[in-house]
User: Fold this.
Amino acid sequence: QGARRPASAALSARPARPGESRGRPGGSVRPPRAGMAAEDEAELSLLECRVCFEPYGPDGPRRPRNLPCGHVLCAGCVGALGRRLECPFCRRPCGPAETSDCRPLLQLLELLGPAGRLARARGAAAPAPAGLGLRLCLGGWGSLVNPTGVAACRGTGRLAVAHDGKKRIHVFGPGGFCLQRFGERGDAGNDVKYPLDVAVTPDGHVVVTDGGDRSVKAFDFEGRGVLAVREGFRLPWGLDATAESEVILSDSEAGALYRLTAAFGRGELKKCQMIRAQLDSPRAVAVCHTSGAVAVIEHLKGQGLSKGSTRVKIFSAEMDLVGQVDSFGLNLVFSSQMYATAVAFDKEGRVIVTDVCSQAVICLGKPEEFPMFNPIISQGLSYPVGLTYMANDSLAVLDSGDHSIKIFSST
Assistant:
């Protein structure tokens, strides 16, 4: 980029650009970039200083500053104009003390993050997984009824599915054959009334959230109930297992995340601890087995006739918020509406969600890269509500639209 010139030099020394009127203030126009879409060009104009044409940033000389007249410059150009400022666009005089931070632009920069579309427009694209092709389809109406959750056992390759059939849990083997059905519909202690989600622990136990009696129930792969946890949950919903066979689960009505520690083989609950509160209707949950990060999907209540929207939040292993993205933010950057229903981490730590608006599976990138919007499965899905990575890095997607599990692998 070279040494940055003072703002006065930027206005006077450079040759006139196409469409620029040098005889009046406010005529500075950046020439269009070859091969760039109109919306990308508009974003660059919004997010860069119109004097030096450098992108705004959150700190230092790139921080956007308001002048009293309403025009915005970067802090570096404000300093270059001297102690008695004159707006380079409308020529209104002012003093340095009359300038202020441009809050809307700072909030937009915070939302876009370091790998927003502006960075990609400048050639700094973040890596993303390749597209996936359909390899196998399991279930279907009659085998699965209105399925709500899917989980994989990486050690054995088995898939556990929660659905609304007479036996609520359906276990498929690696080849796609049914190995076991269990979890009777009924009122006994280990019966499953209304399963909302399912997880499989590394030590081989199937854990289910039951919205019918507001409990969490654990089974072995033979279908024997080993533990039922009723710790005052209001509506336990999504869950996933950690690498240590703990379970992270959401309580949608309480707006909280819990960590369950249990000796499932002995049917012993060791601890049930709330680890995050004040969430908005959290549902789907995923745990990254490499970093311990936790992803959760919040379902935000809509106003009036709106159906609301969703927000994906990522917490560190210590439950500090490290990233988030929602429908509003994606609309600002990609003009894309997203209603996320399930979330997972791939082996690189990227966040993957199912999106019922586009009937697709979307890669949102790593939390530090938010926001990305890269569809990795864009065909063959009707109403995707669940997903899980398998041992061979295939992706199993639960499609409640046709009551099936669709397994995708790299093409």
